[in-house]
Specification:
Length: 160
Amino acid sequence: MQPEISAAMPQAQLIGKGRLNVFGFKVYDARLWAAPDFRSRGDTGYATQPLALELHYLRDFKALDIAERSIKEMRRSASIPDAQEAKWLLELQRVVPDVKKGDRILGIHKPGTGANFWVNGKHVGDIQDAEFARLFFGIWLSPKTSEPQIRTLLLGGNPG
């Protein structure tokens, strides 16, 4: 476990992991860390619990591409007003840099508060917005995800 995970959540354990492949290309390996009693608890139960989501990139991506794709995926779970979307896009670009193969981005969910972000073990910023955090982590954990197989793997084979 990464030190930033153990510092934020001393009781955290690995819940599940999976690899995202798109059209045969390896994109990233994902790991979900949470308390031993973590359960997805239906559609948004994940949003009420501390958790850490780690993405280990297997190819290079531009920050803007990651931010835009994140917003697109967040819209799968909820309608986002244009002004809010623009604000979140800027916030994401502030905490998510261009990534190279081998880089690791970690998001730590703080229920009711927002999210902390780390890149390669360095704290790069926070987004203090509970709704942002719910939708952002929902990219992987919401039943409305575009990648249900990754969701199932991250939830330890228990999607429900």
